[in-house]
Amino acid sequence: MIDVRNLHKTYHTGDIAVHALRGVSLQVSAGEFVAIMGPSGSGKSTFMNIIGCLDGATDGSYRLDGMEVAGMDDDDLADVRNGKIGFVFQTFNLIPRRAAVRQVMLPLLYSPDPSSAEDKAVEALRRVGLGDRIHHKPNEMSGGQQQRVAIARALVTNPVIILGDEPTGNLDTRTSEEILAIFQALHGEGKTVIMVTHEEDVARHAQRVIRFRDGHIVDDQPVSDQLDAREVIAGLPQEDDDES
After folding, report:
1. Any idea what the Cα angle at residue 22 is, between residues 37 and 25, rounded to 5°?
2. H/E element, 117
3. What is the per-residue burial (b if ≥16 Cβ within 10 Å, else e) of 130-165?
4. pLDDT of 176-216, one tens digit each?
5. Is a pLDDT exceeding 80 seen at residue 129?
6. Is 61 exposed, middle or buried, given 0-12, 13-18 or 19+ CB atoms closer than 10 A?
7. What is the pLDDT of residue 241?
8. Alpha helices in 142-208 (DSSP H)
């Protein structure tokens, strides 16, 4: 599904060249759950932006489902971002005065059938356990509930790839486990999940851990003791959904 070969990314600030990626090559198969780790400045976020079609490489090849991304025009890239890829960020990126259902509808407003956007948004919110919070605004929800709204927004277009950039970075341990259980359940449905994290215990939920340093991949190994999504969900403490 994702095939990256000798990928380079260089940023220029005046006369200074910053080499964010230095010849990265890897493949991610459909349905894999991959964690990406590395210190700040290692290139992992740059890599995620490129595979998410938010940025382009300076050199090298990125093929998505057999198609060279560098050859796509802006409309093609927008179609890929809106149809194949769902993004979940550390900071939630919710609009303060908009209800959850309206937040989740946003990616569908330019779809061929926007009339069904609200029904699809409600269904996405139910999938992440927020069926009773569809009309709540961000300031009426906990951090974990806000992140679940962000996940529902990523899911509403039914993407085949979910990209998470530190999706548990602003959450406590219990809430992080709940969010990771959702990611594992999505992986269990056959979606490809790629997640950036700084935390080893978060990375253990993936099948495979890729480590970046100084723009290079320095390690790429399977997780031998990966957890089963059902075991994780069964072991979670029950959350009081009245928390706001």
Report:
1. 70
2. helix 117-127
3. beebbebbbeebbebbbbbbbbbbbbbbebebbbbb
4. 999 999 999 999 999 999 999 999 999 999 999 999 999 99
5. yes
6. middle
7. 47
8. 143-155, 173-188, 200-203
